[in-house]
Amino acid sequence: MPQARKSHGLPQRRVLLLFTSVRFRTTRTRQRNACGSRVSTYGQVLKIAVLGGGTSPEATVSRSSAKQVIQGLSERHNTRYIELSPNMPAELIEYAPDVVFPVLHGSPGEDGSVQGFLEIHGFPFIGSAMTASALAIDKFQAKCVWQTLDLPVLPMKLLSKATWSDARCSDIEATIGNAVAIKPRAAGSAIGVRLLPNGGDLSAVLSDAFQSHDYLVVEPFKAGREITVAVLEHGGVAEALPIIEIQVLAANEWYDFTNRYKEGASRHVIEPSLPEATIARLKHVAIAAHQALGCRDFSRSDFIVDDQEFWLLELNTIPGMTPTSLFPDAARAASIEFPDLLELLVENASARHEDGPAAP
């Protein structure tokens, strides 16, 4: 992934303080045990099950993320990849992992279904619990929560295939406008998103979208800079990592599924040139969005920023870990290398298990 780095100096002091301990412990305890494996932060080699794949349209991306996670964890732990399939429950029970890392994108998997299974069976796992996962993947419900906290979100309409009629187009154009973004209610990686930046045949576009999705969210189209903010927790404390601007390199294209995962299609600009007040506000809103939904461990929030203001678009509870993914880039910008990032997430799940069951 091509990257451009504009430095605003060292990462903020709170981020450094938060993650110094895990980096110090990881460095201090990297020694080999009698079997030749590296021991973990706590002096133990853990069994970690990495879940990936499934039937989601994002399953291929999930498998790519899972491959990177396994490579990053294998130096310090024993890992096993388990495909999201009907055999997954039996494989998990047979393997009896110390920690489960769901690297699942889309539904099923990122929507709380797998997280609920893991909670019922008492498996310690990385990432948000069932309720937060289900809430975050639902763009409509997530924004309803954020609206109650006065976080900056765009006005929206929820449309149902079962009750849709072309007569509603005039209502949408009157309240939202004719330049709109049409999104599936619960999908990621820009799958199914349709943009009408200059207006168009709204009825035809919606009818086509309803062929693949039962519920759609319609909001105003906003031109601007695409910004993402990663949030990382340690010890229950959430901190925002350095922000990233996404620049699509091809003219007249946007950050769709292809440009997200095609090598060289986009550039990640670390700590882009923005007013310091805007940067601080973006980080504040990302943390607030993370906490409002009850997320834990990590998340990534996406924004559109123009010259005057910005809007929170959505939050991802299982950010991608592929070679072109944003979250690892943000961690590196905060001096957290990929294996140390994974170790920190493992520590979070292990600590929750030691402390007892967490609320969903």
Total domains, how many?
3
Mean pLDDT: 85
What's the CATH first level of the largest domain?
Alpha Beta
Question: How widely separated are the two ends?
Answer: 36 Å
- Enumerate how many helices there are, as a single number: 12
> From the 3D coordinates, which CATH architecture of the largest domain would you assign?
2-Layer Sandwich
List the helices and strands and how they pair.
Blueprint: E1 3-5, H1 13-28, E2 47-52, H2 59-73, E3 78-83, H3 88-95, E4 99-102, H4 113-120, H5 130-137, H6 139-148, E5 157-160, H7 169-175, E6 180-184, E7 194-196, H8 202-209, E8 215-220, E9 225-234, E10 237-240, E11 244-248, H9 257-261, E12 266-270, H10 276-292, E13 298-305, E14 310-316, H11 326-333, H12 338-355
Parallel strand pairs: 1-12, 2-3, 2-4
Antiparallel strand pairs: 5-8, 6-7, 6-8, 9-10, 9-11, 9-13, 11-12, 13-14
Helix pairs in contact: 4-5
Question: Top keywords for this entry?
Answer:
360 residues; alpha+beta; Rossmann fold; Dna Ligase, domain 1; 3 domains; 7-stranded mixed β-sheet; 4-stranded antiparallel β-sheet; 12 helices; globular
